[in-house]
Amino acid sequence: MDNLLSLMFNIQSLKLFVKQINSLNKGTESNNTKHVSMPELSSLDSWDSRLKVDPDVQIYLAYDFYTIDNKYFHREGYEFNNVTSSLNQLLTPQINHISMEIPSFSLLSQRDEIPKNMFCNNDTIKDQDCANSHCECPHGYQIPLNAVVELVIIDEGFAYDANHPLHLHGYAFRVVAMERLGRNVTVDEVKKRDSDGYIKRNLINAPIKDTVNVPDGGYTIVRFKADNPGYWIFHCHIEFHAEVGMALVFQVGENGQMPPVPKGFPTCGNYLPEVSCNPRSYILTWINQHHKFSIKNYVSNITTCHFQTFFIVLMERSIGLSFSRTLLCACVLKVASISKI
Ligand SMILES: [Cu+2]
Predict the structure, then answer these.
(1) Model pTM?
(2) What residues sit around ligand 1, an ion, with C-beta below 5 angstroms?
């Protein structure tokens, strides 16, 4: 009995010292008797230049789920705000309000094919209203070789309390700061907090990782030394999010500073065939998109395929012919026009 009581006492005592590492939505602001945030861990590696006071490059990367009309999710007539049930609304996860358009070829091994100024980012598309309309382009930043890069990653947290595991290829980074500021936060609020001196960075022995979380309504700051030349993707590791564009690319160094491409290395590209006109599927799509018959709306996009479809729809709507009979009429008319009858 004495042994049992002693054991129970020891377990209770141990509980006083149990802490949870990397708790969801908790950073260094959390109660440190219960939680250990990433920057509070100590790396066994000694100090290196990633931890110097002023990084060479600083990039703000903010993200959230946005209530925009993503053309891949919301077709005409069914815009985001026209979907009455919130359960059926599909929000778009983006970084800096940009959906990554993945190039159709390998950037590293086919770098000679990259068009000049292909990459876009906040600086290159300032004139676009990406906060309110869907922006999609090859999202990327060029980093000088050997620069120490600081990424200030912000989860704005306005949509819901979801988290994103963010992963960088090509490097391990130091996690120097992590804090939750509230249910949500803006980029300007984080910038002001930093300029006012309220963001504390662990520049002594910050832990080293290649994937990190960000508290919802907070920030995580990581540092890497860009000493591995190439094209490296940074993306959310929830695969669906990465596939719909929650990603970007860091070009580290100039093309001539990257390892040579092996001779005969396989290449890839965009081999999609040209899509042919399919009047029936086009009609169904068109009718779904246009609840009211509108010649003006229709003629604005006229093409050969559209014209054939227009004729078929007109026949159906005006004299009530079935699709097959209308198609037959169309064929007869086409034969007649070819034969110049
Ligand atoms: Cu994600």
Answers:
(1) 0.76
(2) 164, 236, 238, 241
